[in-house]
């Protein structure tokens, strides 16, 4: 897993947004409903909080993503943006956003090397290839300002994330 002070890889990924999820009924999403996320461009607007999850629709991930959605208003007052990343396809992410009223974008690591580059890809076992549960705050220079890896909790310490975003913005 990337550590504080390391440089995050630049990434271009498919992105499922709340706006696209709301625009069509579930099950009718098409490629045109998937947007493009580029970390280097997004960082121009401030730090990025990136949460990695094993997958949408699993019990723990549903709880985690909904908890983050509940706190998104608080996090939304900070500079930068919040994203969640999983190995799921963007179409399943769009359906999840719609079903659970998720207020922030989900990034698809499907068929991408980004989970390995971040050091969060499960290397073996029946769920090989999915992400472990982590969080990063990435500053505008792509330096990692904060890391968290799940142990007993499904969600990172929001006060620590808030502090890291504020610090990354001033650097």
Automatic annotation (TrEMBL):
Domain named Thioredoxin: residues: 2-170
Pfam families, sorted: AhpC-TSA
Gene Ontology MF terms: antioxidant activity; oxidoreductase activity
Superkingdom field: Archaea
Keywords: Redox-active center
Disordered: region residues: 1-27
Keyword Secreted: no
Keyword Metal-binding attributed: no
PANTHER family, sorted: THIOL PEROXIDASE
Descriptive protein name: Redoxin domain-containing protein
UniProt source species: Halonotius terrestris
